[in-house]
Amino acid sequence: MEVDRSMLVSQKRINVIDALRGFSLLGVILIHMMQKFGYLSDNIIEGARYPMFDTIIQLLETHVIAGRFITIFSFLFGLSFFIQMDRASKRGVDFRGRFLWRMVILFVIGIVGTTFAYMDILTLYAFYGIILVLLFPLRNWVLITLTSLILFGLPLMSMVGFDNITFNETITLNQPSDANVVDRETLNTTTNEDVLITNSSFIESAKDNLFVKTKEKLNFQFRKSSIGYIVLALFILGFVVGRTGFFEKVNIKRRKNYILLISFFIVSVVTKLLGRLVAPENTTDIFLLVSQGLKVPISSIIALTLNDLSMLFQSGVLAMGFIVLYQTKFLGKYLDLLSPYGRMGLTNYEAQNVVGAILFSSWGLGSFFGGLGITELFFLGLIIYAIQIIASKQWLRHFLYGPLEWLWRSGTYMKWQSFKRKKTIINI
């Protein structure tokens, strides 16, 4: 009997993880598309052409998409780290050294991706991957404690400065906060002053992304918000969840999935309400307070932490909701179409950045696509995503890995890996 050997290997994969990764990349491309992949254009059309749709999509962006899908993507990286380490240990192989080299390669891939879109996060992922190797020997309770300290605001308080925290709730800004509010739900830190030179070349754009906007991105992630630290917590959390064997049992304990879905939803609502109760005013002004040399009310820090936690649990709702639907007979077969997409997650993520740069940069097609409104950008993102789904499925019919996955794997083992699918005869 003729059997596709690669299919035997793929059976070891947990398809729901691949599908969930593919699902997370839907939100990533949509938020990046609506942010025009970090490129701004002087050809932006003023006035909404589709006011009703614009309003709906903006609500989706704020309350469903922004910050939620990238959270799932980050969590799955930590989970994948555990899977690789676990499978290597079962073969009696210490994979830590190999994984460190693997992160070096990922960093290089991230650098290349950043030349197209400064919003590329792979360089940060590579750095955190190295930290995971260092944390690998620690017990779960230590990792959970570390994660809790991050999620419950310790980095945020450190950034503000413990001496700058006050219990006085009457602090006022020296100027209206609306003009300076920090958008914590996106990584787009560019302003009108940061617009690329109208006629800049790819080289000029790449330099700007690498040396100017990357610095702004890191400054935003680690000094003006706690996003960078939260990503690390998600990596660790994904690693811990991997140790519990949750995804190996996800198809068996379906009742638990429903319980987690409902629990995540309840906690997300409660933490959101508590955040508003603690500090009804806009809490994103705390860094503006610090910049003005003013004290920061403890209530603002607590509220901001609660909002971050609420967003994380909202991501949990999306992830568990997807898993529950994936396990249904009717929708499962359709959602499984995302598995090939997720298996090529690295390739598809970087392809998104390249396409985004071509569409919105001044050296590309920015003069046309830069003028699209949020509704048009949203549906354009869906179209690109659909094309990638089809392309991924077709690609994996002929090849074992996505192009970047194959290159990454070959670099990891310092040897060209098998690429094309081969047929072999197995007597059954």
The SSE order reads EHHHHHHHHEHHHHEHHHHHHHE
Distance between the termini: 7 Å
Helicity, as a percent range = 55-70%
Mean pLDDT across all amino acids: 85
Instruction: Write down the overall geometry.
Output: globular
> How many distinct domains?
1
Classify the secondary structure makeup into a structural class.
mainly alpha
Rg, alpha carbons: 22 Å
Tell me what portion of residues adopts beta-strand conformation. under 5%
Number of helical stretches of at least 4 residues: 19
Spatial strand sequence of the major β-sheet: 1-4
Number of strands: 4
Q: What ranges have pLDDT less than 50 throughout 5 or more consecutive residues?
A: 1-11, 41-45, 175-198
Largest sheet: 2 strands, antiparallel
Notes on the protein architecture:
This protein is mainly α. It has one domain (about 15-45, about 50-415). The chain has helices at about 5-10, 15-35, 50-65, 70-90, 95-115, 120-135, 140-150, 155-160, 200-220, 225-245, 255-280, 285-290, 300-325, 330-335, 340-345, 345-360, 365-370, 375-400, 405-415, and strands spanning about 1-5, 165, 295, 425. The strands form two sheets. A two-stranded antiparallel sheet has the order 1-4. Mean pLDDT is about 85; it is low at about 1-10, about 40-45 and about 175-200.
Brief account:
By secondary structure, this protein is mostly helical. It contains 19 helices and four strands.
Task: Offer a few descriptive terms.
mainly alpha, disordered N terminus, two-stranded parallel sheet, two-stranded antiparallel ribbon, 428 residues, 4 strands
